[in-house]
Amino acid sequence: MKRKFSIGDFGIYALLALVAAIMLYPLLNVVAVSLSSENGYANHPLMIFPHDFDASSYRWILTHHLILSSYKNTLLITVGGTMISMFLTATLAYPLSVLDLKGRRIFMSLIVFTMFFNGGMIPNYYLVRSLDMIDSLWALMIPGALSVYNMILMKNSFEGIPASLKESAYIDGATDLNIFVRVVLPLSGPILATLTLFYAVGKWNSYFNGILYIRSRENWTLQLVLRELVSQTETLLNDNTDIAAIPAQSVKYAVIVVAILPIMCVYPFIQRFFVKGVMVGAVKG
C-alpha cells in the first residue's frame, strides 16, 4: 500500500527546500554578479540572474599572466599530491587492518599521537628548509601528505572486508601484495573515492603552506593569485587604462567562480560514493 502524504511530510519537504534555497542562493548570486555590469550590480546587488550581461571580467581573468601558470601548478599539486597521499594512506592502513599484526597496538598509538601533538609551524618550516624544498612545489605535496584521520577511516573500512576472502586468496597462493591489490582495493571503492575527494579538495584549497614555503610568483598556486586579484582588484584595474571600465566587483566574484568551478565539476561524479564511504570508514567492521 502506498503511504499517504501527510502534513508532517509537507513540513519536512518545505524545510528541506528552504535550507537548499539558502545554501544555493550565495552561489547563484556570485555567478550572476560575475556576469553583470557595474550598473547592473549597483541596481540589483541581490540578483540571482545577470543584469546587463558583461563577461569582460572573465576575459580579463583568463588572460592574466599568472592565471594559467597558477592553474598548472595547482593541478599538478592536486593530482600529484592526492596520488602520493592515497598511496601512503592505503599502504599504511592495510597492514594496520591485519588483526594479528605484531605490535599493531603500539604502532597505532604512535600514529594517533601525531594527531594531537606536533612540532608546530616553526619546526615544520625548518624541516622543509633543511630538505631544500623552499620555493618548490614539493613543499606543498610532501609535508602533511598523510592524514592520520583519513588513514583510520581507511583502516576501519579494510577491517570490514570478510576475512574469508583473504583466506581463500591465501589458499590459492596469493601473496599479501596480491591480496591488497586484487581483493582489498577493488572492494574499497567508496572509501577510496571519499578520501580522494578529501585530499583533492585540501590540496586545491591549500593557501597557508603556499604563503610559508613559496617565494617566486611563477610557483604561486591558484589560491595565492586569487588572493592578489581579490585584495588588489581596483589597483590592478586602475593601473591599466585599457581595462579600467571592467567592473571591479564582477572581477572579484568571477575570481571566486574560477576557483570553485573545477571542484564543482568533479564532485557530482563521486557524490554517490561519499556518504557510503564515510559511513563504512567511520564504523569499525
Strand content: under 5%
Largest sheet, if any? none
Number of helices: 14
Tell how many strands the DSSP assignment holds. 0
- The separation of the N and C termini measures 35 Å
Report the structural category: mainly alpha
**Bulk shape:** globular
Low-confidence stretches: 281-285
Mean pLDDT over all positions: 83
Topology pattern, helix = H, strand = E: HHHHHHHHHHHHHH
**What level of helicity do the residues show?**
55-70%
- Radius of gyration, rounded? 24 Å
Structure description:
Helix 4 (67-97) runs antiparallel to helix 10. It contains 14 helices and no strands. Residues 281-285 have low confidence and may be disordered. The protein is globular, with a radius of gyration of 24 Å. By secondary structure, it is mainly α. It has helices spanning 7-34, 38-43, 56-62, 67-97, 104-116, 121-130, 148-159, 163-171, 176-184, 189-204, 208-213, 222-231, 233-238, 248-282.
Task: Describe the structure concisely for a colleague.
Helix content is 69%, strand content 0%. It is built from 14 helices and no strands. The protein is globular and about 75 Å long.
